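hey can u check if this looks right to u? its 207 residues, i copy pasted from the old doc so theres a chance i mangled smth
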Amino acid sequence: MQFSLWLALAGAGVLISFTPGAGAINTMSNSLTSGFRRSIWGILGQQAALVIHVIIVALGVGVLVASSPVAFNVIRYAGAAYLAYLGIRQFLSKPDLDREQAAVLGNEPAWSMFRRGLWVNLLNPKAIVFFLAFMPQFIRPERPLLPQYAVLTTTVVAIDILVMWFFFALAAKSFQRFTHDAHGQTVLSRIFGVLFVAVGVLLAVIH
């Protein structure tokens, strides 16, 4: 990939990563409940979904999903339902004032965080459609495809990890002062719960 083309790719990747969405909300929620460092597991799950999306598009399956209203809607509504479920669970969670107990409860297994991050991003067919429009701009069919896809995927994943971890997860640390009392914990849980549900509703209704 030419350096000028790679710079354009990197710029586009930065803009995409800074766009708020379910991944950003999930990252901030993980950072609040499990800590900044451990939020990386959810971020890695989201990146695994991103890689799967790239593979789907590269193999041509993305065209079938994008052109099949039934397949697209099944994935879309499943994703919306999952986000709504996460939001309701977050909204109804009870505050825990015992800081030692909260630390134990907040120590969610890495695999659980990874799996949730994976599903949050994977159940979004709009991402597949987006990559269908995004990827051809940076792929030259007359050149070997595998190295180009490797560069594209590595660049987008690396940028998204940096933005998610050092912007959204780090930003969530500023809210931790509100977790020291029941009212603050309740408010934060309801805010993130509403945000998850709102993103799920947007995923379901926006065509």
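The CA atoms of residues 102 and 139 lie 48 Å apart.
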